[in-house]
UniProtKB/TrEMBL annotation, chains A, B:
Residues 32-82 form the HTH marR-type domain. Keywords: Kinase, Transferase. This is Transcriptional regulator/sugar kinase. It comes from the Bacteria. It comes from Saccharomonospora xinjiangensis XJ-54. Belongs to the ROK (NagC/XylR) family. GO terms for molecular function: DNA-binding transcription factor activity; kinase activity. Pfam families: MarR_2 (PF12802), ROK (PF00480).
Length: 426, 426
């Protein structure tokens, strides 16, 4: 589900660069990640297969697999299968009983949490409708902390181990620190989200990862596509339509988010030179004219459920409001496709629900404005995850921390067990 | 100058997959490219250094270096230098006396040719002002063929060998065939450029490579930055401002041109919902409002030289016309930076000449509209090559064909010598 890139190391490699007592541990840590990556990439693989894939000896692989099985990161399937001429081995895969990632999404008008297992199955999902605008950031952080505590309690009740926490925010995130530089639709500037949550939730398990919601949503969509179909496009733009509009760019199977991780900001695409003022300070931004609030207002609808009822009933004002948003979105996306020559667009968030009314006017704009569309038509598809994508991406980002460094996760669990805190978090 | 990525092969590697008499040649061909790449990447390297870098034996490296020196691809410098403790070796670098790439650019209002040596030095450059609009494609191809013949004759007079030909066109190019799918500003659709030129110039030397002018310009700019300075940005957008507007996106030191090579089409960015109709069929495209013709027309200038005189004289209409284009261009580029989080913009083509008047309004728009600009300001720089970038990129693309497969180049030269055509083309 989560792609990790690691290279084989032997003791010698490390001893050359970092001599001393730490080396032995560094080697094990690296090789442990390598073995787990091999299992994640080829579910059902045998120990011999892992050895062949990683270049490690079978003895080393066996020791590390045992360690990963004991920690419930890897599952060993009882039934034997033929792994090559004359040889048999048990098949290994990521364990559905292993740790969960806890994701939380700070939406403009909701808070969502999700507990997701290593193999991508959702164990718990919770959405609280609440308007986070015009609210001091400290207040919103208290709400988020309460949601996290609630999810951790539910995890404990279900006997689930939480391996780490991921947070999705609709703003620019400074990568290593987890500081939110700006989130215009929340009215946030320079908020130390990581520190705030660590204060609000004592004993947060594992790593705390903060990311941009649109980028996390795109990664979740990519994971879902990979699990669900063989013919998923390797490159696409995932558009998260909420009150704000964000995008996540996937190039050749990996998220592209630019030099500072600020990439994918589609919401402030200029569509009207003299349009209304946006929360970002500029005028005529796409999200002010084609975002969820703009559509609801033009359609005279109270919320998205009401809008969809009106659309289902064929109410002309509602249909016209969505079609107009589709044309504006299509115009902006035509510029994106002309620039990046990307073969597919995935409509996510609220746009996934509006897809039946949005897709045609959007596609018409692409056909008209994309230079290469006559030879290579752009595919417009509906997100499989819809509004759930970002919170699932947040949960997956927490799991990625475990998957890229399983040894540290295992060591921290052992320490917790030793000090009497127990393996299950809460 | 040109970056090549090749991996070491030994005879065994190839014999496994392609048994038979061809293998020996395939191995040599691959290793020859590998050695040349090592010399290109580390000018001044010794034979021992090449062996260490490539993993080939010193004996193999020596044989291949001798072959490359004989073909004037590599220069061996007489003076000895210390390459390691107790060892001495001659220093190897790409030969300035080696083959030239012949580049030709088909501009909307000019045809340019350039002969460029392996180390990037320009041996001959020629620009013919001629309007190629409203002219049958076959007529334009005849003009291009005449320019190519002229350049080949000049090369012969100067004793230069031409290793291949690169063509830059302002349109979408189908990558392997060299067919131009569409070039709106030339009025071209589905033109088999490669076939047309091979018919128009008998005995065209080496490979014929066709590419998009804006993408080739960006690559030339990248090469020039690498030669000229240590602190060149690894990622940037190069904007080619001519009658049309194109862009080339460089990410982490390599051109990014999308799934089909159609990327970088910035000219048809929608800037006015009810703007004038563009040659592409849509309305309100950036190049119709901020391209060279639009600026000249607003400024009341006859051509770019006239415009620059008026700007130098501080003529208000001229300054206002350029500033207005700068704001529109800045608005479009803000969307590009918000999307890609790219740290630098390079203004090329005519925009390089207009830089002193264009940069400020453009930068002001970026500061206002780019979400992350407060934390990471976007650098706006002037192209070092200006209007010459695309034709130089075309010449470099022809050289790349030689550099990635030197053995085939050497074999074709030997064949030519044998049949009495001679090593110099013409």
């Amino acid at each position: 589900m989560v792609k990790i890139f690691v290279h084989p190391l032997n003791e010698y490699d490390v001893l050359v660069t970092t001599p001393g007592p730490a080396s032995q541990h560094t080697v094990r840590r690296h090789n442990c990640a390598l073995v787990l990556d091999a299992v994640a990439a080829t579910p059902g693989v045998s120990r011999a297969g892992v050895a062949a894939r990683t270049g490690l000896t079978k003895a080393t692989v066996s020791t590390l697999v045992d360690r990963l099985v004991t920690a419930s990161l890897v599952r060993e399937e009882g039934r034997q299968h033929r792994s090559g001429p004359g040889r048999r081995g048990t098949s290994l895969s990521l364990s559905p009983d292993g740790p969960c990632g806890l994701g939380v999404e700070i939406g403009v008008d909701y808070l969502a949490t999700c507990l997701m297992g290593l193999t991508g199955e959702v164990r718990d999902e919770h959405v609280r409708r609440i308007d986070n605008r015009d609210t001091p950031a400290s207040r919103v952080l208290s709400r988020v902390a309460a949601e996290l505590r609630g999810a951790l309690q539910r995890a404990e009740r279900e006997g689930l181990t939480v391996g780490g926490v991921g947070v999705a925010v609709p703003g620019l995130v400074e990568a290593p620190s987890g500081r939110v530089l700006v989130a215009p639709n929340l009215g946030w500037e320079n908020i130390d989200l990581a520190a705030g949550l660590r204060t609000g939730v004592l004993d947060l398990p594992g790593e705390l990862v903060v990311g941009n919601e649109a980028n996390l949503a795109a990664v979740a969509e990519l994971d879902a596509m990979r699990r669900g179909e063989e013919t998923a496009p390797a490159s696409f733009v995932h558009v998260s339509g909420e009150i704000g509009i964000g995008a996540g760019i996937v190039l050749d199977g990996a998220l592209f988010d630019g030099a500072n991780g600020f990439g994918g900001e589609l919401g402030h695409f200029p569509v009207r030179p003299r349009g209304p003022r946006c929360s970002c300070g500029a005028v005529g931004c796409l999200e002010r004219l084609a975002g969820q609030d703009a559509i609801l207002s033009s359609a005279g609808a109270d919320d998205v459920d009401d809008l969809v009822s009106r659309l289902d009933a064929g109410e002309r004002t509602a249909v016209a409001a969505v079609r107009s948003a589709g044309r504006l979105l299509g115009s902006a996306l035509s510029a994106v496709v002309n620039l990046l020559d990307i073969p597919a667009i995935v409509l996510g968030g609220t746009y996934a629900r509006l897809y039946p009314w949005l897709a045609d006017p959007l596609s018409a704009e692409l056909s008209c404005r994309v230079m290469g569309s006559r030879w290579r038509p752009v595919e417009v598809r509906r997100s499989a995850l819809g509004a759930d994508a970002a919170v699932r991406g947040a949960a997956a980002s927490a799991l990625r921390a475990v998957l890229t460094d399983p040894d540290t996760y295992i060591a921290s669990r052992t320490a917790r067990s030793g000090s009497g805190i127990g393996a299950t978090s809460g």
